[in-house]
Specification:
Layout: H1 2-7, H2 20-24, H3 31-58, H4 60-63, H5 73-76, H6 81-102, H7 104-122, H8 130-150, H9 156-184, H10 197-220, H11 222-228, H12 237-252, H13 260-266, H14 268-286
Helix pairs in contact: 3-6, 3-7, 3-8, 6-7, 7-8, 8-9, 9-10, 10-12, 12-14
């Protein structure tokens, strides 16, 4: 169990972003492409776990000072450094082995993600602003990997929206670090010295506004309306705004955005907005035109 905990399988939910291009291409039920994506998902997830291991290895001292991260296997001493390094290498071998079963382009993008995050673990995460930009780019690369694995195009709109949403969550997470610093008097990460609550609050408000405007622009653009054969796509904005407002409520009122993954698993309101948003697009993309409830 402690080794599984070190791999952070709960964070694999982030890698469902690989399925986004196939879903929006209207080919979610293409068995061959779906199988390729399943292999790609496990390849990406296991490779990402190797990065989690390295990150925990690098942050043992800092994690021991954190009220939550101190319970991680390496920080708590449950797993030795030597065992962690062996598992780190094993994850790379298995992840890349599965990756080569997909295709060369997938491995190339996976390598960009891997190298970028290795550099992040080794020092780039200590540079404020750059740290959240790297985290956000990671989600775009997830979607890119899904596109090349399933051999479907990834629109520029999806790239923009994925990056903005990931940036929004990363900023909220940094705000949580600042709150912990205010309570304990200690920086939870070196990059925290480049942030304060006022700066992060402005960033959250700015990115939230950009997300809503960008999404509305996407839904009413002629290209999007032609692709989905409907002009009522803007109805789905209701779920986007609802989800954003709830996340802001968790951020500002509950002061509990330290783990976006935990929020996704536990917050029923956000779960409902995501389900309704996905369902609305499913109706638009996959149901016959004469049965679409939005027409």
């Amino acid at each position: 169990m402690k080794y599984i905990k070190l791999l952070r399988p709960k964070h694999w939910v982030k890698n469902t972003f690989l399925f986004i291009p196939l879903f929006f291409a209207g080919e979610l039920f293409n068995t061959a492409k779906l199988l390729e994506l399943v292999i790609a998902f496990f390849s990406f997830s296991i490779t990402a776990s190797s990065i989690y291991i390295l990150n925990d290895y690098q942050d043992i001292a800092a994690d021991r000072l954190h009220p939550v991260k101190c319970k991680r296997p390496l920080a708590s001493g449950e797993i030795s450094k030597q065992a962690a390094l062996v598992l780190f290498v094993a994850c790379i071998l298995v992840g890349y082995g599965l990756g080569w079963l997909v295709n060369g382009k997938f491995v190339f993008i996976l390598s960009i993600y891997f190298v970028m995050n290795i550099l992040y673990c080794l020092g780039l995460k200590h540079i404020s602003i750059l740290d959240i930009m790297i985290l956000s780019t990671g989600f775009v690369l997830r979607a890119k990997c899904g596109g090349v694995a399933a051999q479907v195009p990834l629109s520029e709109w999806l790239v923009i929206m994925i990056f903005l949403l990931a940036l929004f969550m990363a900023i909220a997470k940094r705000r949580d670090d600042i709150l912990i610093k205010q309570d304990t008097g200690k920086d939870m990460r070196k990059a925290a010295s480049g942030y304060n609550s006022d700066f992060l609050n402005v960033m959250l408000a700015l990115v939230s506004a950009i997300i809503i405007v960008a999404y509305l622009t996407y839904t009413i653009s002629p290209e999007t309306q032609l692709r989905f054969k409907t002009y009522r796509l803007y109805y789905t904005t209701l779920f986007v705004i609802g989800g954003l407002l709830r996340y802001l409520q968790i951020t500002y009122v509950e002061n509990n955005t330290g783990s976006p993954t935990k929020i996704l698993y536990k917050d029923r309101f956000i779960q409902l907005t995501i389900i309704l948003w996905v369902l609305s697009f499913y109706v638009l993309i996959y149901l016959p035109t004469d049965k679409k409830i939005f027409e």
